Amino acid sequence: MSIKHFMSVWSAGLLCSAFVSCNEAGCPLNNTVVAEFNFYQMADGQLQKARLTDTLTVTAVGTDSILINRDLGVSELQIPLSYARPTDTLSFRYASNRGTVIYDTIIIQKESYQNFEAPECPTVTFHNIKAIKSTHQYIDTVQIVNPNINYNATENFKIVFYTTE
Amino acid sequence: MLQKILRSCFILLSSAVCVSAAAQNTETKTQPEPKQKIIIGTDKEKVPVFCGLSVSVDLVGAVMKAINSNFAQTEAALRLNFKEKYFPVFELGYGFSDYVSEETDKCSKTNAPYMRIGMDYNFTKKRNGNRLYAGIRYGFSHFRYDLADASYRDPVWNQPLPFYLNGEAGNAQWGEAVFGLETRLWKFIQLGWNLRYKKRFSQHVSKQGAPWYLPGFGKNGSTCFGGTFNLIFEI
């Protein structure tokens, strides 16, 4: 084999080895994991979407974190759950423009697990909801719609408020 | 004149076998056309069913290991030769990876053996040790892997949650389409390279995360390109 041929094979081989590559493991574009709550009220015997007229503040009990701060005209909420606690307690504070303040508390029982994703992507935590209960100042009932909380932003909880005049 | 035309046609056809033409002998210039045809014809008649076997080692993996690449794999292959056309092949290797992302400091570690079986088909007509081939492979690896994200924390509930997954078992299966060539270097020693398009069929890993590297496949994904550069010993 001549030098020319030898060089041809070697250069092709080096090109080949440089070609060792793979498709990129792209991180998910929607990489936030939040629980979605939608608000409802009974009207004419049917469940209908509701919009709060009071100012709503949501805090995580046991921390100094304010998850929703004085939001007005709210009809749905997206709230992050804790990554490791088996139970999260959320405090709902309704403040009317007349100065009255009412509190409700929602307790969520869940199982959480971490998802590593690719090394280039942030680790995320997914949740599986086991149970939910609440106090009943403004809230009539709370229901689990979808117990799996992950990348798919779908309705997880239905909060039905008492009907007011 | 007719001889010249025939000779030109033969050279063109030989070149059309693309890259392998570089590895072909060029003795046709000095040999008369009829004699060459007789040689080819005789070769075809004399090809036995079993023409021998060869063992090879991949040099790319050794280089990748030496330069501390994110992953490397050392590999050897045993190949049978039937009629200089069909080459059943068995490849056995060991893959190494200890990858740390610069952006996130997250780690993925996999060290495990893998195997592939398959078949190559040689397109060249001559029996001179130069081959242009295409083939397919089925690959399998059973492995254990580690994942780590030591700095993971819950920002809202303000809680550090270092994530470790150690010694998790998994396995993967994939297929490969291979295209390559090889040429005789000296007597029974040959040199060759091939390109591989890989398609992952399945992987069974923890729901908490998959390894960054699959031994024998490469960087984990649905598809992957790879290649080997082989030193081959024909027996």
Short description:
With 165 residues, chain A is mainly beta. Chain A is 10% helix and 47% strand. Chain A is elongated.
Largest interface: A-B, 41 and 51 residues
- Average of per-residue pLDDT values of chain A: 86
Structural class of chain A: mainly beta
Detail the poorly predicted runs of chain A. none
Number of strands of chain A: 11
* Quaternary status: heterodimer
Strand order of the largest sheet of chain B: 1-2-3-4-5-8-9-12
The CATH C-level name of the largest domain in chain B is: Mainly Beta
Largest sheet of chain A: 6 strands, antiparallel
InterPro entries (chain B): DUF6048
Pfam family, one (chain B): DUF6048
Organism (chain B): Candidatus Paraprevotella stercoravium
Keywords (chain B): Signal
Spell out the blueprint of helices and strands.
The complex is a heterodimer of chains A (165) and B (235).
Chain A: H1 3-18, E1 35-43, E2 46-49, E3 55-60, E4 66-71, E5 76-79, E6 87-95, E7 101-115, E8 124-134, E9 139-144, E10 148-149, E11 157-161
Parallel strand pairs in A: 1-11
Antiparallel strand pairs in A: 1-2, 1-5, 3-4, 3-6, 6-7, 7-8, 8-10, 9-11
Chain B: H1 2-16, H2 33-46, E1 50-58, H3 59-66, E2 71-82, E3 86-100, E4 107-122, E5 131-149, E6 153-154, E7 159-160, E8 163-186, E9 189-204, E10 213-214, E11 218-219, E12 223-234
Antiparallel strand pairs in B: 1-2, 1-12, 2-3, 3-4, 4-5, 5-8, 6-7, 8-9, 9-12, 10-11
Keywords (chain B): Signal
InterPro entries (chain B): DUF6048
Pfam families (chain B): DUF6048
What do these coordinates show?
The complex is a heterodimer of chains A (165) and B (235). Helices cover 10% and strands 47% of the residues of chain A. Chain A is mostly beta strands. Chain A has one domain (25-161). By secondary structure, chain B is an alpha+beta fold. Chain B contains three helices and twelve strands; from the N terminus they run H-H-E-H-E-E-E-E-E-E-E-E-E-E-E. Chain B has helices at residues 2-16, 33-46, 59-66, and strands at residues 50-58, 71-82, 86-100, 107-122, 131-149, 153-154, 159-160, 163-186, 189-204, 213-214, 218-219, 223-234. Chain B has an eight-stranded antiparallel barrel with strand order 1-2-3-4-5-8-9-12. A two-stranded antiparallel sheet of chain B has the order 6-7. A two-stranded antiparallel ribbon of chain B has the order 10-11. In chain B, 34% of the residues are buried. Residues 1-31 and 35-42 of chain B have low confidence and may be disordered. The chains are: A mainly beta (165), B alpha+beta (235). At the A-B interface, helix 1 and strand 7 of A face helix 3, strand 8, strand 9, strand 11 and strand 12 of B.
